């Protein structure tokens, strides 16, 4: 189905028309119907169509149309003017698929109209009319009921008059009979016209009004015969059609309003989804940075753990060395004490030697000259003993000082060993803490990686959602366009 304005520009075409013709909506809307006109169609056929439509009557005939790809297709075009307030505002054509034999007959007719020109059959309101003597027979098919009644009455009057004349009556009788038959036939003609022609004209007018949507007035006849029943049926069809159109139009307007609201909601949702996508993308980038930083912290903590372990091991080795130093210092202290004891023995020996030298000097003095040499030796021995005693005293003092120093050093080394032990313990604690930090950092890195993966999944889903929203917006726009076309299509019948 398609509708055009009074200048034959296409205003609406349904999906079936698009599919059969092969055109897209943007390619056909706003174009004239010449876009689908096939060159095999004779111009006289379209001239008859436009003449019929402009007279306010429907036109129905087979038409050969052109597809977008250059191919063709046959349809039975059922065209009718769209009339409002007795004035055409456009035209509507509903196309149906014809029978094969109808196509063959139409093809022969149109070829004949192309080849024979003026001598070929022609179309009158979509019906084939022959030329020559055949045209006289075709006139009967296009004659109105009123004219048919009058023509039949006139023929009957002629036959009756001829019969009266053939009876050989007098002139007065013939004229009287002719006058009577004329009046009787006129009365009968008027009666037939009032009983058949006038109601049928009313039925035709009402049918055209219903078909063209000209007005919503309902015509009635106070009779229940075939004509009265047919008129009531046409009125009922018109009422049902108008009710259906009004109801569908209201529903279409409601759907159009809903589509507008859906489009607004989709626009808002599209904006929010895009903003969410931007936020998720920023969050994803931030999560990647956080993951990198946490991973760097984990690596640093791991390195610190290794260094802490190495420091703990070094401190442990230092503690062990300090223990060895303390043990060595204790050995030195013990040896110093033994040396002091030995020096004491030496000092005692020197003291005894000095006493012996003193006694020898006394004895040498008593011996006089004979003991002088011995006195000298005794003096040297006493001097040597004195020096040995002095040296022993100095050694003793040095040993005592060294012992005191060694003891003080031992205390210091012992304290240092204790401190190193504390350092080792603390280093182990630090290593344990760093190990826990490294473990926690690795776990945190894994959790952040999971969060990052979740954010990435959310970003993917958000992108998918954005695409779905875009598709929804496109579908909503398409639906809105279709509803708009539906409203326009329904408007044709209102």
From TrEMBL:
Its main location: membrane. GO terms for biological process: positive aerotaxis; signal transduction. Pfam families: MCPsignal (PF00015), PAS_3 (PF08447). PROSITE patterns: CHEMOTAXIS_TRANSDUC_2, PAS. Residues 1-40 form the PAS domain. Residues 251-480 form the Methyl-accepting transducer domain. GO terms for cellular component: plasma membrane. This is Aerotaxis receptor. It comes from Comamonas thiooxydans. The lineage of its organism: Bacteria, Pseudomonadati, Pseudomonadota, Betaproteobacteria, Burkholderiales.
